[in-house]
Amino acid sequence: MNKSIKVEDYYDQATFSRIKALADTKETPFVVIDTATVDHNYDELTRNFPFASIYYAVKANPAPEILSLLANKGSNFDIASIYELDKVLKLGVSADRCSYGNTIKKSKDIRYFYEKGVRMFATDSEADLRNIAKAAPGSKIYVRILTEGSYTADWPLSRKFGCQNDMAMDLLILARDLGLTPYGLSFHVGSQQRDIDSWDGAIGKVKVIFERLKEEDNIELKMINLGGGFPANYITKTNDLETYAQEITRFIQEDFGDDFPEIILEPGRSLISNAGILVSEVVLISRKARTSLHRWVYTDVGKFSGLIETLDESIKYPIYVEKTGELEEVVIAGPTCDSADIMYEDYKYGLPLNLAIGDRLYWFSTGAYTTTYSAVEFNGFPPLKDYYV
Fold this sequence. Notes:
By secondary structure, the chain is α/β, with parallel strands linked by helices. The protein has ten helices and 18 strands. The chain folds into two domains: 7-30 and 273-388, Beta Barrel (Lyase, Ornithine Decarboxylase, Chain A, domain 1), CATH 2.40.37.10; 36-271, Alpha-Beta Barrel (TIM Barrel), CATH 3.20.20.10. Strand 10 (223-225), helix 9 (241-256) and strand 11 (262-265) form a beta-alpha-beta unit. Helix 5 (107-116) packs across helix 6, helix 7 packs across helix 8 (197-217) and helix 8 packs parallel to helix 9. The relative contact order is 0.16.
């Protein structure tokens, strides 16, 4: 059982006070994002990776407040759909600062991106590559490869996306033959990746493909997209960003020397998560039997209103309550009429015995992948509200 969560372990007092002042005026559930934290996180990322181009993963949180802030700081954008593209372009961001990072896309959407001016596309299959050649002629192509590192990530990503090395080489050769520009390779070691060595293995794979294409097919790739994976501050601690950067930079230099290719990062979670606090209210507290050792705490937010990353209890958010005292292990579940709407049952959180209906739960590090995962009207509940300070 985890110990009671302390604010100071996750937020400085000024940040928490800003969020709390707004939270006290709102009806739950909702998430409050501190934009100053996002600003700071972006600066930390660019300071630690001065050689890299940042492509913010819009899917993490596409709020205009976030997109505008990052656009003004010079960020580029990793786009997954025409809807995300429209949001970004509406803010005055030029299309050359966007890449179409989704490997699963319709031909008409590829054409839409191309007509808007986007010239960099991800792929991992021949069918998709041929669609790009027809709808976006002459564009830059980067191929996503499979990695093993995702198995040590809290939120694995690799099984659905990417291809084996030999297919990646075939696709880049085909891209050249189709009149496209074989530009680079990408991978994603998994979101909330705690094993930094995962990048080492992936970069090693990339090095082999770079060398073979140059030697055997006279194709000289220009770019490596390292994806995301940098962590947020959840229950399970991780190394700090500086340690990630030092190690990943070393991996790149060991394989490519000091004259390494263009490097792209696609952060989402690491930029936004720590800036957000989701606030919910206790709806009901009960036991399943007279002798039950665990209470069930039902709250007005759940899997379908922003907490889908608790699926399989993958992401363990720090949960803070203002009451103190003796703790008891609890099961935490959401408000909907769906038996899957249980956030934590195997991993037991410790919450105060005097916790009562109407008390608030503060879910820390919930700025990313909460509002975007919230259902529109499951059980009639509205989408998760969000506020920005």
